[in-house]
Amino acid sequence: MANIIDGKAISAQIKEEARLEAVELAKKNITPCLAVVLVGDDPASQVYVRNKKKACELCGIRSLSYELGADTSEAELLELIDRLNADKECNGILVQLPLPKHIDENKVLLRILPEKDVDGFHPYNVGLLSIGKAELKACTPAGCIELIKRSGVDITGKSCVVVGRSNIVGKPVGMLLLAENGTVTTCHSRTKNIAEVCRNADILIAAVGRPKFITEDMVKEGAVVIDVGINRGAYNKLTGDVDFENVSKKASYITPVPGGVGPMTIAMLMKNCITACKAQNNIK
Ligand code: NDP
Prior knowledge:
Bound molecules: NADPH dihydro-nicotinamide-adenine-dinucleotide phosphate
Order of helices and strands: EHEHEHEHHHEHEHEEEEHEH
Oligomer: single chain
Largest sheet: 6 strands, parallel
Distance between the termini: 42 Å
């Protein structure tokens, strides 16, 4: 039976580290500050935004909240971002995705100053990630790496297989594994013999968005399995991309859903807020 990687405990550790850094910053009269922008009334986004604000409070990060109507124009949103970019007190800007259809997401993400891009989605930060120099790393992928490393697993030289190639999870997690000296293979919907490729993995990351996609026969004995998937089934029950019940009999380490990767995203966001604040105040 695999060791279960406790994402709640590890995320609590990271938030505590962020809180301690905020205490140090307070001694210099600096309060890290995150602006959270929500457009529209998507209930899932409202929950995410509420949780982000709660985490800020816990970590000693000030949060500014902008809840805009669904009919907000692209120009109005861009104008708000310009104001937050210019605001010296505000260290990080997070625009909750998805945005209403009439707003060009790409244009909005490009408008955020890279040094305030605490989601790590700006092409400048994505570029830094690809050359191994990112300070602000995409939160969920960075969270996956923390889960692996804090479980005592060394990524160096390991065969790492990522299933999924999205810009927000699959690609950045592949870059981060490479930066940790893993040997990385990325799979997607056109990959041939995917089960065979997955069976070669010492570290397998599933970011597919299909419930129980990774089955026991796709996993090598003793592999480390990280499940990014969040799939909502009947009665809103959460299921990961991995068949946890059977894969956990074979893996050496595995993340559950819920309670694995999920809580890491906000913890890494808190860490990015502190990083952004320190960089903007020239603190090493
Ligand atoms: P996307 O839908 O953007 O990407 C899914 C990827 O999986 C694509 O690259 C797609 O391939 C690939 N894929 C789909 N079907 C297959 C298949 N049959 N065989 C092989 N590959 C396949 O999803 P995201 O990356 O945004 O998210 C992935 C999962 O992670 C979702 O469940 C999402 O909810 C969850 N998630 C969790 C987060 C967290 O905080 N824990 C944060 C972000 C996401 P192709 O490119 O060829 O279409």
